[in-house]
Structure formats: structure tokens, C-alpha cells
Specification:
Distance between the termini: 16 Å
Strand content: under 5%
Helix content: 55-70%
Number of strands: 0
Largest sheet: none
Order of helices and strands: HHHHHHHHHHHHHHHHHHH
Structural class: mainly alpha
Number of helices: 19
Radius of gyration: 23 Å
Low-confidence stretches: none
């Protein structure tokens, strides 16, 4: 079921909210159990067969996690249980997501004749797998104090985050369900949650889906071997850059808003990443819960930054290469991750040089140039992220480099409509505050990083008639544009 569908907006969501709060007046266990069952129904709406996979994953990880969390101190066999749990999760993820990729490459490199399975990727498998791996590690560290199965089941399956994140920590979310106020309807939570949801829905349906009509034909043409001019290639690359941003940040806003309707505060997942002044800054702003997961459960265990610079750079590359592979079973994703790993290595090296020989540019100009350079580097990497093949990515980059001319006489360049759309995206991404800045007075999110500062913008939301009208206008504009089913881009990961 999609957040941007009539059945979700006008049937599932209102019915689930009403029954949850009705049961919450009588029994917390009943309300939580109902919400877990409703979340399973939400997942099964897409393909009921994969409910068995999700339920089996939840049961397996619950049993392993309970074994790890029961003893106050680490007991004999805890480490073996942890590795068993991680291996089990990765085996399931590998079987469904990577079996075909590895079989194809083994056949090509070693001349084998392995069968290549064609498996429909279960929605959300990467997200609920990473969420549960984090849970097992936290249980091993004795940071988990929740042993009730129904609570654990809700932690994993809670529908706002189930399919595309944010990647949650158990300690962030489940204690909130223990508070009586989360079981009661609250007008402030409803107003805040509905506003954030409306912003996210508008981003997805109006902005992301609107700019997609310029991105998709260009990348499709590159995939079919077409020659692209400078304007067409850059138009397609920039259109996809903003499509992905408003699609996934829109999903994250909707997830945060939906959770708040139930009285639950999620961690921040986006903090205006295209305003970043470096790649390091970008990864503290883009898909923040994933970057936190990669940092805490991969980069730091590898040695992090507290080692020889060469080892630190190797750790960065390994982390980003695996992060790229997590997004998709293809060499384009590996190259995307490798590019960002290279960017991070260069960024850290530049910081070391910058400290010794600081530039003499005015601070404002230096900031603008840093933002522009970071943005261009990100756009180039997105070409590999979006392209269906290495050949398609090459065709896009050749066009962006001007190797086939700059003329407007190109069937894949739309002229003024595309230019106006891109200018609007630039203005929104750089000129307007994000949802967490707008609603900063009402704690819209949990700070993903301990030292993160979610600076408020000049605009500040408050429960007033004017903001209610604006929220209604966003919802109406989105509802009018719900003319076709449009999945979220991160569903494929």
C-alpha cells in the first residue's frame, strides 16, 4: 500500500488511527497488538506471500535478540548468537537481493553456468533487515530492555517506516509506546503530524512526480544508446537529482508525520542535504539514519578514523562501497558508492591541507563555491545511481561533458518548461526551510546525531488558521494530482 494512494489516505489511515486510540483507552497491549496487525496488513496489501518472510524474520530476530538481551552481562555464547543472527539476516537479504547479481558475475568471470534466479524483491527487505541487525547488536551490547514479542513486532513492522525507513534504533522508539500519552488522541500531535505529512505528500506527488517527466525519457534514451547533447544530458541529470530528493525526502516527511499522528517521534532523516558545503556535510544531511547505521555498525567496527590515515581512507571506501551495494545489486550502485568513498577521502585530505593553508576568499563566496562544488559532485554520482547500465551512465556523462554539442535541437530537451521546473526546485531546495525547521518549536524529530543542530528558519509554524489553510492547500493540491499510482524510488532498494 502506498502513502500516496486513495485507499491509504481515505480508508486505512483514518480507520487505523480511530481503532488504535479507541483500544488505547482500554488496554495498551491491545492497542499495540492491533497496530502491529494493521502494519502487517499494510505490508501484505502489496503481496501477501511475503508476509511469511517478514513474520519469519521478526520471529527469528526476536528469539536471537531475547537470548542476547536477557542476561545483564555478556554470557558464554553471546558472540556466537550475535554472529548467527547477523549471518541469518544477511543470508536472507543475499538470497533475495544479490543471488542473481553474483550468479551473473560468476558466470561472466569464471565461465560457469550457474542458474540466474529472477526473484521479485520483497518491499522493504533492506530496511527491516538493517533495523533488526542494529537491534541484535544493541541487544549484544545490553542496550535493549524490551522482551515482549508484540512490542518487538511493532518496532519492526510499524508501517510508517517499514518500507523505506528511517532506519530506527529500538531505544529511540519503543519507550515512547510505553507512555500513556501516546495511546491517547492529542490535538497538537495531530496538527504537527498532519502538517509534516502534507509537506511530504506534496513533495512526492507534485514536485517529484512532476519533474520525473523530464528525467525518465533522458535516462531511457541513454539506456538505448542515444546520443545526448549538453542541455539534454544536464537537464535529465538535474531533473533526476531533484526527483530523487523530493521523492525520498517526501517519503521521510510522510513517515515522520504519520508516526507523530500516533504520538511517536522519529529520528531526522533529511536536513536540506543540497545545502551541504562538503561531502562529509552531505552525508550528515542525506539519508541520515542510514549514514548513522553505516558509521556505527560498519565504519567504526572497521577501525573508524582512530587509526593510520591510509587505514581510515580504506575504511571509508569499504563502507561506501558496501553502502552502494546495499542500494542495489548492480555495478552502477557499486561505482556510485565508490565515487562517494573517493569524495570523502579527498574531502578529509582537503581538510588537512585547508588547516595549514587556509584560502583567502571571503567567507560568503567560499561557502557558495563549496556548496556548488559539492552539488555538482553529487549530481555526477547520481548519474550512476539512476542509469540502468554502465553504458547508459557513460552516454549521460559524455553528453554532460559537451562531447556531442550543446544545441537545443534535441528531442530529449524540453526547453522552457524543464528550465522553469528546475528553477522552482532550486528555489525550494536552497531558499526554503525544511519541515523540521518550520516546526522546530514542537520537536518534530529526534536529532539523529548527538551534536546535530536543527537550526530554525525565519518561518515558524504554529497552530493557526493561516497554517491550517496552507496545510489544506498542500493536501488538496496533492489529492488533485493523484491521477496514477507512483511508487517511491527507494521502494526498489
Amino acid at each position: 500500500m502506498l502513502f500516496n494512494s486513495y485507499e491509504f489516505l481515505f480508508a486505512f489511515l483514518p480507520a487505523t488511527l480511530a481503532l488504535y486510540f479507541l483500544l488505547g483507552k482500554r488496554s495498551a497491549t491491545a492497542a499495540i497488538g492491533f497496530l502491529a496487525l494493521a502494519s502487517l496488513f499494510f505490508y501484505g496489501w502489496w503481496n501477501p506471500r511475503y508476509l511469511l518472510l517478514l513474520c519469519g524474520s521478526v520471529m527469528f530476530n526476536y528469539l536471537v535478540g531475547r537470548r542476547l538481551a536477557q542476561n545483564p552481562a555478556r554470557a558464554k555464547g553471546d558472540q556466537a548468537a550475535l554472529w548467527l543472527g547477523i549471518a541469518g539476516n544477511l543470508a536472507v537479504l543475499g538470497a533475495f537481493k544479490y543471488a542473481g547479481f553474483f550468479a551473473l558475475n560468476a558466470n561472466a568471470l569464471a565461465g560457469l553456468a550457474l542458474p540466474v534466479p529472477h526473484i521479485v524483491l520483497p518491499l522493504g527487505i533492506s530496511f527491516f533487515t538493517f533495523t533488526q541487525i542494529a537491534y541484535l547488536v544493541d541487544a549484544y551490547r545490553k542496550e535493549v530492555r524490551e522482551y515482549r514479542f508484540v512490542h518487538y513486532g511493532l518496532f519492526v513492522t510499524f508501517f510508517p517506516h517499514l518500507l523505506a525507513g528511517p532506519v530506527l534504533h529500538h531505544a529511540e522508539v519503543m519507550p515512547q509506546f510505553a507512555h500513556a500519552r501516546s495511546l491517547r488522541f492529542d490535538a497538537e500531535n495531530f496538527a504537527v503530524g498532519l502538517t509534516i505529512f502534507a509537506i511530504g505528500l506534496f513533495k512526492k506527488v507534485v514536485l517529484a512526480d512532476g519533474i520525473a517527466e523530464f528525467a525518465t525519457p533522458v535516462f531511457d534514451a541513454a539506456g538505448h544508446g542515444a546520443t545526448l547533447t549538453f542541455l539534454a544530458a544536464w537537464g535529465g541529470a538535474l531533473s533526476y537529482t531533484f526527483q530523487l530528493y523530493f521523492d525520498f525526502s517526501g517519503y521521510s516527511d510522510m513517515a515522520i508525520g504519520l508516526a507523530r499522528l500516533f504520538g511517536i517521534v522519529f529520528p531526522a532523516n533529511f536536513n536540506s542535504p543540497y545545502k551541504a558545503t562538503s561531502i562529509i556535510d552531505f552525508w550528515r544531511r542525506w539519508h541520515m539514519t542510514l549514514s548513522r547505521f553505516l558509521r556505527d555498525y560498519l565504519y567504526i567496527p572497521l577501525g573508524g578514523g582512530h587509526c593510520h590515515p591510509l587505514r581510515r581512507h580504506a575504511n571509508l571506501m569499504i563502507t561506501m562501497l558496501l553502502g552502494g551495494l546495499w542500494h542495489g545489486a548492480g555495478w552502477t550502485f557499486v561505482i556510485w558508492g565508490g565515487l562517494h568513498g573517493l569524495y570523502l577521502v579527498v574531502n578529509h585530505a582537503w581538510r588537512a591541507v585547508h588547516g595549514r593553508w587556509p584560502p583567502t576568499l571571503p567567507p560568503a563566496l567560499a561557502r557558495v563555491l563549496a556548496q556548488l562544488l559539492t552539488f555538482v559532485a553529487v549530481v555526477v554520482a547520481w548519474v550512476f545511481f539512476r542509469a540502468d547500465s554502465l553504458a547508459a551512465a557513460q552516454a549521460m556523462l559524455e553528453g554532460m561533458a559537451g562531447m556531442h554539442g550543446i544545441t537545443k535541437a534535441d528531442p530529449y530537451y524540453y526547453g522552457m518548461p524543464e528550465l522553469k521546473g528546475l528553477l522552482l526546485m532550486f528555489v525550494i531546495a536552497w531558499g526554503l526551510p525544511n519541515a523540521q525547521q518550520l516546526l522546530h518549536r514542537y520537536r518534530p524529530v529526534i536529532a539523529t546525531y548527538a551534536d546535530e543542530i536543527l537550526a530554525p528558519g525565519r518561518l515558524s509554524w504554529r497552530p493557526s488558521a493561516a497554517w491550517a489553510l496552507l496545510t489544506s492547500a498542500l493536501l488538496i493540491a496533492a489529492a488533485v494530482n493523484l491521477t496514477h499510482v507512483s511508487e517511491f524510488l527507494y521502494y526498489q532498494f
